[in-house]
Amino acid sequence: MRVAGIFKTFPLGKKGSVRALDAISFDMAQRELVAVVGPSGCGKSTLLRIIAGLETPDAGEVRIGADTPATLTARHRLGVAFQDHGLLPWLTVAGNIGLPYRLAGLPPDPARIAALAGMVGLSKFLEAVPRQLSGGMRQRVSLARSIALDPVLLLLDEPFGALDLVTRRTLNQELQSLWTDLGTTTLLITHSVEEAVQLADRVLVMAARPGRIHAEFRIDLPRPRDRALTNSLPFLNLVQAVSSSLDDASAASGEQTEPGA
Amino acid sequence: MIRQAPRGGAPLRAVGTLLFLAAWEAIGRTGLWGESFPALSTIGGVFVNDASRNLLLRALGRTAESASYGLALGAIAALLLASASSLWPRLRIGLDTLATGIYAIPTITFGPVFILVAGPEATPIVLSALSAYFPIFVALDSGLRFAPAAQRDLAAVLGASRARAFGRVDFPAALPAFVDGLRLAAPGAVLGAVLGEWFGAPRGLGVVIISSLQNVRIPQLWAAALLCVTCSLLAYVLLSALHRQAHRRYAW
Q1: Domain identity same for A21 and A101
Q2: How many CB pairs lie under 8 A apart between chains A and B?
């Protein structure tokens, strides 16, 4: 995937406008998992929404292989999981995981749906409705749904952001093999530096106002990154380095409100 | 979100209702507000008489039937308008204006016209539908417009066509709002049916109300009016139960 020279400005009514993204450019290799961290309001989610085709950039372009976000969406090959799981309360777990099939006009594949539920540890809950599940289980359903149609690109926008720390760590431990086994090119937006270092091949640090790439870290730690590794010195050093860069990015964040005409 | 009544409210409601009924009975018996305000027991006496009871129950059946057809027609019209507005957003302003414009017409002024155009039998249904469709349209339209953003984004990212997103996500998510609209429209549907009966329908509570007034049958007039209220309340209560069910199943 290539993100090239993305600019995005949002109007603020009579107060002018705010530049959300400023010349964002980066590439992602096939099967790579890139995490984006940054202070609140740095435009991480806007960037993800542009890559998902939910927002249009003022300038620049996104290419996923030969596809644009629009053409990839039309081919039903984009996967996404948001912080708000977006499960449909009237559908069962199986129905929610199989929703992409229905929305794409394809017949659901019960064997694939059962396999996906198994991959996220919900085999016994196929007939449960979301109301009967915990927050962590709902996010597992959301993740299984995001990969149902075997996406070319997977976008994860703070998928564990609303969960407590313990559930979040457990899910990261349990599900990291899922990402490596799938080998789907994945962009993860997160607030958590530990989560980014644990899951990603590369971490991009963004600065705010305007949102821009501040630093980049390659994570060459071996996989699987289990509890022992996340307590090891190399891991902690990387977390420290990314955190320091994040602090620098926060300090470097300026006010970029442009006056109205 | 459905707000639950505070616990322990039922006995208080029962006491309040009993006090209200007792006050009504006392005012009627003492003649405090004149002969046109009979006691509840006098109104209830109308139902003891076989002929009066049969007349009122037949009229109630007719009005309930007209109101039910009117509510159903209003719901279909609201469903079509709101769905078209959601599926073809360019039509939204025009459809909103049409829906509001029709509702803004005072139906009472067009009652005689409907008698001529639709006939006396169908006029109660037409006026009932005209009274009912707007609250349903407004509720469903809001439900469709303000579907949860995460669900809407998901459908967009998954490349769902507008029709599929509507059928699989938007409309089921808006069902509680649709039933809420039905609940709010039900009393209006009864009112519309009674109004239509006033303009010359052969049967119904509206006809009984007019004839009782002309013949100064005060207790029968009150009995017919109270049956209208009961009919409205019953529809509201039944649809409120349906709304709770829809909310439980289709909303968070």
Answers
A1: no
A2: 69
